Amino acid sequence: MKQSRFDTQHENQWCPGCGNFGILSAMKQAFESQNLAPEDLLLVGGIGQAGKTPQYIQGNMLHGLHGRALAMATGVKIANHDLRVVVSAGDGDCYGEGGNHFLAAIRRNLDITLLVHNNQVYGLTKGQASPTTALGTVTKIQDNGTTSDPFNPVATALAAGASFVARGFSGNTDQLKDLIVNAMSHQGFAMIDIFQPCVSFNKINTHAWYKDRVYNLADTNHDPADLAQALNLALDQGTDKIPTGLIFQQEKKPFHRRLAPLQNQSLVTYPFNPKAITAILEQG
User: Fold this and answer.
1) I want to staple 98 with a disulfide (CB 3.0 to 4.6 A). Which of 45, 67, 69, 173 is the partner?
2) For 45-70, how does the pLDDT look when each residue is reduced to its tens digit (9 = 90+)?
3) Within a domain: residue 67?
4) Which helix (H) or strand (E) holds 26?
5) Which of these, 79, 51, 61, lies nearest to 6 by C-alpha position?
């Protein structure tokens, strides 16, 4: 296999057959196809198997507390909006612990790319139900079946005003690579919810289960500029057919263009004046 400039020597800790491998491969291909250098990237991870992804990619990296990856990415992008910021999070990490940060990032239209590895369980902590686990699913913890309706991240993102919403599948790395490239080219908040199997703890939503159900929206007459059409797709929670691809996209001013001091330059390019800062602090 051809060596990638984004490869690392870190030993991978994922289970054999994990859908994260497909996502990792698609990410590296997407970065290579854009002729990016590792120093051009900042990869942000939370806690969980998905949050480990930045360890296996050569580039700048940040790890944070559970659910706080988007909060860290917000600070980074405000400080230096020349960096390409990609957040790698799990469904529990992003939609559970990080749910409020997820909504805030959408509303701000931060110019970052969010990749959510959605395996519908907490894969690091032995398979208890996550926000996206189907109602009634039996796990080691929920031995009588889950009692909460599953969170719908795509519908929520659309309703909250996200400017780029897509869905991918770890078993289709070619499509996923293209989605990541498009998301990173988008000026604003770009979210890709990525279905992936958890071979250890989710025996329902397997690779074969997804392969039998996913279809590519590029092969249909779907219009990604049509919000009503996108919402109808998102609200269709049936499991017979699952649409993947670009669901919705619109142009909106990204967050750093909404703030006058950031419109022409990043915070890191402003001169540091400790005397002025001290004077302001002493006034308080």
Assistant:
1) 67
2) 988 888 889 999 998 988 888 888 99
3) yes
4) helix 20-33
5) 61
Vertex 256, ends 254 and 259: CA angle to 5°? 115
Please give the DSSP secondary-structure letter assigned to residue 121.
B
Alpha helices in 41-200 (DSSP H): 69-79, 91, 99-108, 153-160, 173-185
Rounded CA-CA distance 225/222 in Å is 9
| Token code pair at residue 146 | 């889950």
Question: What is the domain count for the chain?
Answer: 1
Structure tokens at 188: 């604003």
Using alpha carbons, select from 92, 230, 97 the residue that is nearest to residue 163. Answer: 230
Q: Tell me the CATH number at 250.
A: 3.40.50.970
In a domain, 115, yes or no: yes
Using CA atoms, how far apart are residues 16 and 220, in angstroms rounded to an integer? 34
SS3 label, residue 215 = strand
- pLDDT tens digits for range 98-129: 889 999 999 999 999 999 999 998 877 777 88
In DSSP terms, 214 is beta-bridged to 242
CB 89, CB 45: distance < 8 Å: yes
Burial of 256 (0-12, 13-18, 19+ CB in 10 A): buried
In a domain, 14, yes or no: no
Please give the residue range of the domain that contains residue 239: 20-283
Is 47 a member of any domain?
yes
User: pTM value?
Assistant: 0.93
Burial 50-72 (b: 16+ CB within 10 A, else e): bbbbbbbbbbbbbbbebbbbbbb
What tens digit of pLDDT does each residue of 150-208 get? 999 999 999 999 999 999 999 999 999 999 999 999 999 999 999 999 999 999 999 99
Cα 8 to chain centroid distance, Å, stands at 21
